[in-house]
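Anyone up for a design puzzle?
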């Protein structure tokens, strides 16, 4: 069992005194505002590592001469999702500020590797290291909880959360300025410099958490799950090249399945597993987990597909493409980012009165409808603007409603582990569905121009309709929920 201790250093080794969680050494309000600003800005690194990189994918694919560019997104999500629970437990043992700075260092090194890489395998090594950034956000929140005075804690976390929404608006603008004026490599130099500068401020001004929670690390569970999912994704990504019935592809699928079964068997043994499989007996958590997988897949797919759809010149795409620069791409994504942020407030108001299930199923309807519209009609600017706008209403509502449903799905004492499990499933879902979309696109290549794959219009139609189908899966899971209504209580099935 975990043991919770809360101490702060005295004047000598072993000299410590008890301290309550959520209390802080008396300091001025201005000091805590500055600490909040530093941690909130650092938390943006996770979102920037996705939002700035996605518009750069077409240029990266062309320069690196690869058909497997989806791995840039997939590997980041997969490594980040699986490593975040482990990093969190290490931080509980060794100190959240200390581990946060380690993560910042790994993230910066990974970004620098990608910026300088001359081959795709080296890019993937750096991108896997960048996946550590997924742990920055929960580490920053946990650190705030431990060090901030109670009077400022709720406001601090709320402001930090709102900042992530702002990245949706600013990310494409920053990416456009970097990529259009330099190259995609400038994005990764930025991703290396940004956390180092903020990490230095964290080191200088942010106090260490006094809280320690001794727990066991499920290294084998993380390795088994990562290897299982990774093998399956390799089989999916290479199926069209190696042949779906080839020994290599069948070996990847078979090996992944065996490792997955082994992981399930192993996860029943540790006292503190990576994923507590006993929670999956709950209908509430199963349906919420499926909804999270679908939601993260939809959000990732729409951003990735739009980046390719809009940047291809019309003479090459024939039935699609506007030859937009990354800066011009922001005319779609920036207004939609504002809508997504606004939906966070709307969902909060509706959930308070009616529960989160209603806005969640409405969100899947909008996300699916927007994806379907983009699949059928994308040869004019106004069509893409309408389709992406409709999707953004759903996407913003999905991001806001899922966490509320997690809270309502399980008792309070299980919310931390349940939230971690649902977030892990979402990260795997995002990587899986992006990989599947590129399986569809790579099966519909119309031309190769200077190393860049030009997909046919049919490929985008099928990829967007696949996204709409994922929305339908999420909708069905939401309609099967019995929690998250105005009259519901926490429901946990036996």
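Challenge accepted. My sequence:
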């Amino acid at each position: 069992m975990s043991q919770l201790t809360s101490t702060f250093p005295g004047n000598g080794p072993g000299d410590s005194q008890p301290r309550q969680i959520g209390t802080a050494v008396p300091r001025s309000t201005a000091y805590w505002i500055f600490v909040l600003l530093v941690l909130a800005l650092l938390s943006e690194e996770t979102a920037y590592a996705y939002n700035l990189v996605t518009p750069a994918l077409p240029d990266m694919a062309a320069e690196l001469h690869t058909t497997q560019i989806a791995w840039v997104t997939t590997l980041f999500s997969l490594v980040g999702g699986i490593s975040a629970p482990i990093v969190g437990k290490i931080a509980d043992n060794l100190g959240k500020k200390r581990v946060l700075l380690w993560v910042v260092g790994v993230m910066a090194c990974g970004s620098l590797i990608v910026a300088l890489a001359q081959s795709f395998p080296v890019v993937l090594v750096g991108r896997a290291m960048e996946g550590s950034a997924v742990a920055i956000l929960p580490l920053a929140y946990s650190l705030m909880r431990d060090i901030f005075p109670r009077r400022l804690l709720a406001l601090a976390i709320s402001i930090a959360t709102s900042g992530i929404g702002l990245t949706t608006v600013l990310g494409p603008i920053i990416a456009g300025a970097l990529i259009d004026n330099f190259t995609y490599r400038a994005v990764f130099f930025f991703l290396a410099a940004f956390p180092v500068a903020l990490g230095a401020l964290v080191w200088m001004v942010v106090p260490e958490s006094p809280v320690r929670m001794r727990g066991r690390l499920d290294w084998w569970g993380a390795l088994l799950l990562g290897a299982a999912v990774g093998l399956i994704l390799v089989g999916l990504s290479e199926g069209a090249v190696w042949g779906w019935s080839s020994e290599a592809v069948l070996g990847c699928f078979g090996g992944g399945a065996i490792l997955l079964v082994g992981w399930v068997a192993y996860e029943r043994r540790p006292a503190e597993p990576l994923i507590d499989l006993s929670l999956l007996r709950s209908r509430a958590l199963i349906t919420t987990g499926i909804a999270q997988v679908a939601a993260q897949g939809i959000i990732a797919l729409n951003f990735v597909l739009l980046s390719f759809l809009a940047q291809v010149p019309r003479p090459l795409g024939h039935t699609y493409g506007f030859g937009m620069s990354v800066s011009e791409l922001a005319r779609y994504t920036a207004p939609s980012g504002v809508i997504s942020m606004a939906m966070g407030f709307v969902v909060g108001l509706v959930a308070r009165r009616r529960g989160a299930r209603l806005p969640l199923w409405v969100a899947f309807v909008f996300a699916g409808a927007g994806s379907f519209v983009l699949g059928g009609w994308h040869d004019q600017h106004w069509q893409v603007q309408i389709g992406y706008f409709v999707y953004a209403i759903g996407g913003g509502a999905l991001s806001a409603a899922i966490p509320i449903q997690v809270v309502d799905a399980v008792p309070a004492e299980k919310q931390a582990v349940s939230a971690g499990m649902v977030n892990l499933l979402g990260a795997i879902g995002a990587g899986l569905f992006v990989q599947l979309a590129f399986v569809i696109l790579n099966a519909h290549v119309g031309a190769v121009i200077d190393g860049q794959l030009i997909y046919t219009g049919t490929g985008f139609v099928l990829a967007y309709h696949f996204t709409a189908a994922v929305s339908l899966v999420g909708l069905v899971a939401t309609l099967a929920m019995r929690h998250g209504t105005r009259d519901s209580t926490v429901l946990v099935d036996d």
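A detail worth pointing out: Confidence is low (pLDDT under 50) at residues 1-23, 489-494.
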